[in-house]
Amino acid sequence: MATVAVSRGARPLVVSAVWRTRLGYGALLAFLAYLVVLPLFRLQSLAFEDGARGYQAQYGRYDIGQTIRTTIALAVTSLAIAMVLGTVLAFAATRLPRRLSFLRIVPILPIVMPAVANVVGWAFLLSPGPGYLNALLRTLPWWNTLDSGPVDVYSTPWIIILTGFGLTSFVYLFVSAGMQNISSEHLEAAQISGSSTLGVFFRVVLPLLRPSLVYGGGIALLLGLGQFTGPLLLGQNAGVKVLTTEMYRRVSESPADFAAAAAAGSPLVIFGIVVVLAQKMLLGNQKRFVTHGGKAFAPNTGRSVWAAAAISVYAILALVVPLIGLAIVAVSPYWSESLSWNLFTLDNFRALFQTASIVDSVFTSLLTSVVAVAICVPIGYLTATLLVRGRKHRVLGTIGDVITALPLGIPAVIFGVGFLLTYTQPPLILYGTKAVIILVYVVLMVPFSTRMQMTAMLSLGETYAEASATSGASPFVTNVRVILPLMRPTVLSAVALMFILLTHEFAASLLVRAATTQVMGTLLFDLWENGSYPLVAAMALLMTAVTSIGVVFAMLVGGRNVLSNL
């Protein structure tokens, strides 16, 4: 009887809906913290062990000053190039007539071409000896006495120029999105007041673009600081070093020095955090930059010749020219400045599909990219929901915002080193598996998935969710049947962007790969190191084709505006 009384008097444990939600978000953030924060913590802790031996080993070198100066010069100068070109191209895109409106997507297309393929293509063209463009330049009267050159693509200035061209598309994405939100009434008012096209641009357009310029410039600066592909492929010949290549050298030497590698990456981590905070301070209250009016940015399209010409020239230099360099080498038996139609062959492409390691690398790239994207989309959606609608979970929202922002401010090579250190030790030894590649891909892509879906949620507002809740739908039903269908274009754009970036990914992959687990970019690097240049060119074209097919598929599913929605 006593037992029965106790059982009748006991109250069942009831957890409120708010706390169930908090526990769910807490589990999500714990998972993200394990992936994002733990590798960074272990890496930076190692740099301070044994009396900060890692810092002494790295910053006691005689050439460290030159390495830091080169890193800063690369970041700042390439940022200046990208900001100028990206802003001019975005303004030019608004000056196009309807019959040439398709050119607006052209400045985005260089993103589809892998950075490693772009760099290699320019190397084939501007290498001092066998470079095809250099050989052509040496036929001119000014340089016909030269045996090599006149351009040296392996020099610091050309690494900076190519990096600036590569960052231009990212700046264009941010600035063009900002221009779409500028009402044409402001421009018409300025023109009626007598301002010229340049006056309108500098006095009206640029001030209103301040949020886009600050954010896009911050992202481009961080990408410039974390540049790895160009300095690694082109800088080795001339001894050009930056902090990211120093990290790679430290962990690839025998024995690996993770402490020194962590110390080399510390300035990049600190500066990344500073840039993110500076963005928020510079933007301040973003409502100051909101314009009102019924008409979008649609300035007079009468002066459109320069706009079409500017976009076309950029496309030729950033996309067409390096592809030509790759195509020539890919159909040649060897890389030489002398060309002959009789030597052209498709044997290199046949060799790609007959080499088991190359076929495996393509499969691994596709598998790891698709799985990582499939994981990132729901994580990004849940995190975006927490940031946008989690008024009752402000602390969790702040933590989630910080965790998901870290991979944007910290170069991929640092996460690569961190994952290499973390997953070659217990409790999870994943080195040499596809799982570690997928995990590092998830870390790198979570910011993009979260930010893009968060922007879409903010634009939708609360009306649809409130109407669904009023009708009696649960939060799950509201998200699945109402919010997600409305966000379909943005989700597909996020999928397209993440797939593009992951099939290109090179820095982190190079550090966590193993001899038996390669992706396309890392195998291309091995071919480059071995001097198999025709296979390098063919592999670079294959990487570009794989990414292009993925983008076309996304456009078929999500519509033609998938790329423009990036």
Instruction: Please state the oligomeric state of the protein chains shown.
Output: single chain
Mean pLDDT: 79
Apparent shape: globular
- Major sheet summary line: none
Family: Belongs to the binding-protein-dependent transport system permease family.
Subcellular location: Cell inner membrane; Cell membrane
Transmembrane segments: 23-41, 72-93, 105-125, 156-175, 213-234, 258-278, 305-335, 362-387, 399-422, 428-448, 491-512, 532-557
InterPro entries: MetI-like, MetI-like_sf
Detailed description of the structure:
- The chain is built from 24 helices and no strands.
- The N terminus is likely disordered.
- It is found in: Cell inner membrane; Cell membrane.
- Keywords: Cell inner membrane, Cell membrane, Membrane, Transmembrane, Transmembrane helix, Transport.
- Belongs to the binding-protein-dependent transport system permease family.
